[in-house]
């Protein structure tokens, strides 16, 4: 089943490849859940789904507890009168100003389907700033939301930094990590480059955590771009290379075909 949100770096298109490489376990943990493509298309007894985007996690929690009523409420925003630039910017302002979690969550679904190209972007003050998308007839993902709601009953949702989640791993867990991608080209200022607020130091820290967890018997699968830096950082893992067509990129310049790596950190031999 497709995720109900369009999300940068969404893994729906390669979920079958990811599934093949995920070991069995009692609980699947996703420190960077995004739209939840892997959660929705796997079958673990329990899930711990985390992201540091509080708006996203509040939406998931609201859907999990409110179900049909919330889906109906979200649908009420998908009317032709709301599909104009003027109305879009008004509702975007409401989204940024409101403290009402249910309204904010419903507006995130609206903005996601009426905004430009499935982008998710905030300004320096934390304001959502994606421009109007000009879609003829925005799709309301009713079946997808209903499926997410059903599956969410077996999931726990948190807002935290990935380091906190990895520190709280326990035996029986399996980790799937989909961090913001490293940049495709290794530029001169590479060591300080940070894409989507995720620095190279954080990429390295994630790899260190993966080795540590694997040694403790907790397998970790990570996806990322296939670059020299990543090959170096993930050298202790079993690597699979994929060619992935990408339609939404965090970075417009990186569009098109990009090599993708799946790295499985597993076993005490690491
Ligand atoms: C590539 S996306 C995940 C895509 C997801 N696998 C899917 O299929 O939609 C990366 C996610 O990591 C989140 N993120 C970025 N930095 C983070 C951090 N330090 N800790 C936890 N999550 C973070 C972003 O909000 C984003 O949702």
Pick out its properties:
2 domains; 10 helices; 270 residues; seven-stranded mixed beta sheet; globular; two-stranded antiparallel ribbon; single chain; 9 strands; Rossmann fold; alpha/beta; 36% helix; Adenine-specific Methyltransferase, domain 2; binds S-adenosylmethionine
- Rg estimate, integer Å: 19 Å
Give me the number of helical elements: 10
Amount of helix: 25-40%
**What's the CATH first level of the largest domain?**
Alpha Beta
Tell me the quaternary state: single chain
| Unreliable stretches | none
Total domain units? 2
Work out the strand percent: 15-25%
CATH architecture of the largest domain: 3-Layer(aba) Sandwich
Under CATH, the homologous superfamily of the largest domain reads Vaccinia Virus protein VP39
Major sheet description:
7 strands, mixed
CATH level-3 fold name of the largest domain: Rossmann fold
Query: How many β-strands, per DSSP?
Result: 9
Q: Which sequence of strands runs across the widest sheet?
A: 3-2-1-4-7-9-8
Shape: globular
């Amino acid at each position: 089943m497709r995720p109900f949100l369009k999300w940068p770096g969404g893994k729906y298109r390669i979920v079958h490849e990811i599934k093949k490489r995920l070991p069995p376990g009692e609980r699947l943990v996703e420190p960077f859940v995004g739209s939840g493509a892997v959660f929705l298309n796997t079958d673990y007894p329990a899930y711990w789904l985390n992201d540091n985007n509080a708006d996203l996690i509040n939406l998931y929690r609201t859907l999990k507890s409110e179900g049909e009523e919330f889906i109906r409420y979200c649908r009420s925003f998908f009317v032709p009168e709301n599909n104009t630039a003027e109305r879009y910017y008004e509702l975007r302002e409401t989204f940024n100003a409101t403290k009402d979690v249910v309204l904010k969550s419903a507006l995130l679904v609206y903005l996601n389907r009426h905004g430009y190209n499935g982008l998710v972007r905030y300004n320096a003050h934390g304001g959502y700033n994606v421009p109007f998308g000009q879609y003829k007839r925005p799709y309301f993902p009713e079946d997808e939301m209903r499926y997410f709601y059903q599956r969410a009953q077996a999931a726990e949702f948190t807002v935290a930094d990935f380091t906190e989640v990895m520190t709280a791993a326990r035996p029986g867990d399996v980790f799937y990590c989909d961090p913001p991608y490293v940049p495709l080209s290794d530029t001169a200022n590479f060591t300080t480059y940070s894409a989507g607020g995720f620095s190279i130091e954080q990429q390295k820290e994630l790899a260190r955590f993966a080795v540590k967890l694997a040694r403790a018997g907790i397998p970790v699968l990570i996806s990322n771009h296939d670059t020299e830096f990543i090959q170096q950082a993930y050298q202790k893992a079993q690597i699979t290379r994929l060619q992935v067509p990408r339609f939404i990129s965090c970075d417009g310049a990186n569009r098109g075909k990009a090599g993708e790596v799946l790295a499985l950190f597993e076993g005490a031999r690491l």
